[in-house]
Each structure stands twice: as C-alpha cells, then as structure tokens.
Specification:
Elements: H1 3-17, H2 36-50, H3 52-55, H4 60-74, H5 78-91, H6 96-108, H7 112-125, H8 130-142, H9 146-159, H10 164-176, H11 180-193, H12 198-210, H13 214-227, H14 232-244, H15 248-261, H16 266-278, H17 282-295, H18 300-312, H19 316-329, H20 334-346, H21 350-363, H22 368-380, H23 384-401, H24 404-420
Helix pairs in contact: 1-2, 1-4, 4-5, 5-6, 6-7, 6-8, 7-8, 8-9, 8-10, 9-10, 10-11, 10-12, 11-12, 12-13, 12-14, 13-14, 14-15, 15-16, 16-17, 16-18, 17-18, 18-19, 19-20, 20-21, 21-22, 22-23, 23-24
Length: 421
C-alpha cells in the first residue's frame, strides 16, 4: 500500500481501539490475548515506523505516534510507550497530555525522578494543570519528599478544590506521614465528591486493612470490585485481608484472580506462593515463585522464597542454586547470606556455612541469629576459643533484644566450652 493508504489504515485501527487521550493509573493493565484488530495494528505500526523518515512531512504522523503510545500505555507496555512518547514529543513538544502520560508511565515503572521531569515539562506549557501537579506529588511521595508533595497537592486543590485525584493524593500523603486516620478523612472526602471514584475506594480499603478494620476493608473493596471486577489491586488487598484473618482458602481465591489479570506482577505471584506455602502445598508454592522470577528475573525475594520452598521439598541442590542467584543479584543481603549458610550447615559444609554467617553478621551486626550460627559453626570446626567469644557476644545481643531463652542458651554454651577447654 502507498503512504496515504498506510496512514488511513493505521488511523482506522486506532479509531477501533480508541485509546484515551489521558490515561488513568487504575485503567492500565496487560493484555493476555491480543485481539485480531490489535495484531493488525502491530503489523501496520511496524511498516509505519519503517517508513517514518519518508512520512515525517505528513501532518498526521505526530498524532498517530501519540495514539500508538497511548495504546501501549493502556496495555501496561510502559517501556514501549515511553519510546513512542519521546518520538512524538521530539516532533511536537507542546503536547501536554503526552507529557503527562509519559510521566505516568515512568511512575508505573517506579522511576519517580524521570516522571517529575516529564510532568514538569507539562507544567511549563500549562502552569495551571492540576493533574500534573498531583502526579508530581505522587512521585515526590515515592521519593520520600513529603513536604514538597503536600505543597503540590495544595496547589492543585487551590486550582480545583473538588479534584478527586488531588483529594486522593492528600490521603496518600497523610498515610505516608503515618496518620492513617487523617488519610481516611481525605479519602472519604474524595468519595463524597464521587462515590464511584475507584482509586479512592481501593486506597481506603488498603488503609482499613492497615488499621485492622477488616469488615470495613472488605465492604469498601467489594464496592470497588462491583465497579470493576478486574481491579488486581482490590483483589490483592482482599487477599491480604483474608490472609490476616487466617482464612487462607479465601485469600488464595483472591490472589488467584489478581494474578490472572496482572500476570506480570512478581509481588502478586509471591503473595500467591506464600499462601500455598502456608497451606503446605509446596510444589504449587514453588510454581508461583517461579512465575515471579519469570516476571522479573532480578526479583531477589522470589529467588529466596523459591530456594526456601525447595528446601522443604528436599531439593537442597536447587535451593542452593536459587540462593546463589539471589546473592549474585544482591551480594550484601544478610538475610539471603544467612539462608545460604543454613543450607551449607544442613549439607555439613561447615567452612562455607561459617563464611556465610560471618558475612551475614558483617552486613547485619545487630541480628544475633547470625552470631548464634557463627558460634555453632566454630564449635563444629573445633575452634572453641573463638566459639566461646562469639557465644558471649551473641548472649549480649539477645539480652538487648529481650530474648531470655536464647540468651540463657548462649551463656550455657559458653560456660560449657570454658569447662571443657
């Protein structure tokens, strides 16, 4: 097809998909199965980008790239969306919505500094854009810049006192400040403006969970799911509510539903795996942790969790491989080093176990468990004087922690070594 036919075809497909001009965080979700129209758009996009140099004089091109970026953002394809926003903004940097959407993409990727840069560009064009201010505030909350975030939220509310997303932002701010009850007040204010404002319902449910107001959490989260049954955050939060109430089967039901929607989220897979582990379904737990690894191969927690469950399945070799990978990703992680030391201990590889407990103690000197096992390995290696000194230091740490049982055990072991020396 010629250039004009290509542009008309791609515009027709974009009209069918009809991506919003300004995306909302709670509407972004990955697509498990692509529709025929979406596959056809992907083919047209490929040809379009190959011909971009010869098409750049066409006025429609910038608009098409922006809409393509919006499609990817709506599908939670954040990296690809950012590439396309950069391309379209390079051609026309006056697109406020594109700057805001790109800022949102960076927010979803947990890149708050980059988000602030994009949203700042939107504000440079439109100084009274309250939504950009709210998203900047959200990025500042992620950075721990609470005062700056509050200033931007107040600016947004000065421009539009009824802006529900700004009221939601105030709720997030007070929660981050450690004032959950005040957060509830702001979230309820947002809902008084719009009782169907989904993110406020979900955040309120999460705050109620933190406050252990479980019945209220369940009620408000069910309201959210009545509006949108495919909200993975609401489903996951309900799973956490039931987990805290020790109703593991109900918790698993909601985590299952959550991962079926947001299947690329390693945290959700880990939560599902944890429930399987609590139910002693170790192979299913391992399967879930492996899905977390597939979603993010650099997720240290998933490697550690899978290593721990492999131990329960009696596969010490695989458990060791998983912890080796976790330590390659995070060499100073004392907890992982300690876990690997326990595996070496179970394999009677005491020198290697000692080395791990020694490193774990160096990285986390306030944790007496590292010293406890360090002393135990020294005893097994017949290094009694060092073991005795280590038991004494471990005893002091357990005393400080108020663990009388462990303190007494350390004292007894040190005394026994003194008597046998």
């Amino acid at each position: 097809m010629n250039n004009n036919e290509l542009l008309e075809a791609i515009e027709a497909k974009l009209d069918q998909l009809n991506p919003a001009e300004l995306l909302e965080p709670e509407s972004l979700r990955p697509v498990a199965i692509m529709t025929r129209e979406r596959r056809q758009l992907a083919e047209l996009e490929k040809e379009f980008l190959q011909r971009l140099e010869e098409l750049k004089s066409e006025k429609r091109v910038t608009r098409i790239i922006t809409r393509l970026a919006n499609v990817y953002l709506s599908e939670a394809g954040f990296g690809r969306a950012i590439v396309l926003y950069e391309l379209t903004l390079g051609q026309d940097s006056s697109q406020v919505n594109a700057w805001i959407n790109m800022g949102l993409a960076y927010l979803m990727l947990s890149s708050p500094k980059e988000a602030i840069s994009c949203l700042g560009s939107a504000l440079a064009i439109d100084q009274r854009n309250a939504l950009a201010m709210v998203y900047i505030a959200k990025a500042q909350l992620k950075l721990g810049e609470l005062n700056e975030a509050n200033i931007n939220l107040d600016r947004a509310l000065f421009i539009d006192s009824n802006l529900t997303r700004a009221l939601l932002g105030k709720g997030l701010y007070f929660r981050a400040k450690g004032d959950p009850e005040v957060a509830v007040t702001w979230l309820r204010r947002a809902l008084s403006m719009d009782p169907k404002f989904l993110p406020a319902l979900m955040e309120l449910g999460s705050v109620y969970l933190a406050l252990k107001r479980y019945d209220e959490a369940i009620d408000i989260l069910n309201q959210a799911l009545n509006l949108d049954p495919d909200q993975s955050f609401a489903l996951s939060t309900l799973g956490e509510v039931y987990n805290e109430q020790h109703d593991l089967e109900s918790a698993l039901y909601y985590f299952d539903k959550a991962v079926s929607i947001k299947f690329d989220d390693p945290e959700l897979w880990i939560k599902k795996g944890d429930i399987h582990k609590a139910l002693k379904s170790y192979q299913q737990a391992s399967n879930a942790y492996q899905k977390a690894i597939n979603a993010d191969p650099e997720c240290v927690e998933a490697w550690v969790r899978n290593g721990a469950v492999m131990l329960l399945l009696g596969d010490e070799g695989t458990a060791l491989e998983h912890l080796n990978t976790a330590l390659a990703l995070d060499p100073t992680n004392a907890e992982v080093t300690h876990q690997r030391g326990l595996i070496y201990y179970s394999l009677e590889r005491y020198e290697e176990a000692f080395a791990d407990f020694d490193v774990a103690f160096s990285n986390d000197p306030g944790n007496p468990e590292n010293l406890y096992y360090r002393a135990l390995m020294l005893e097994l290696l017949d290094r009694k004087e060092e073991a005795k000194r280590t038991w004494t230091v471990a005893q002091r740490l357990y005393d400080e922690a108020g663990n009388i049982v462990k303190s007494t055990e350390c004292k007894t072991r040190a005394r026994r070594l003194s008597q046998t020396h």
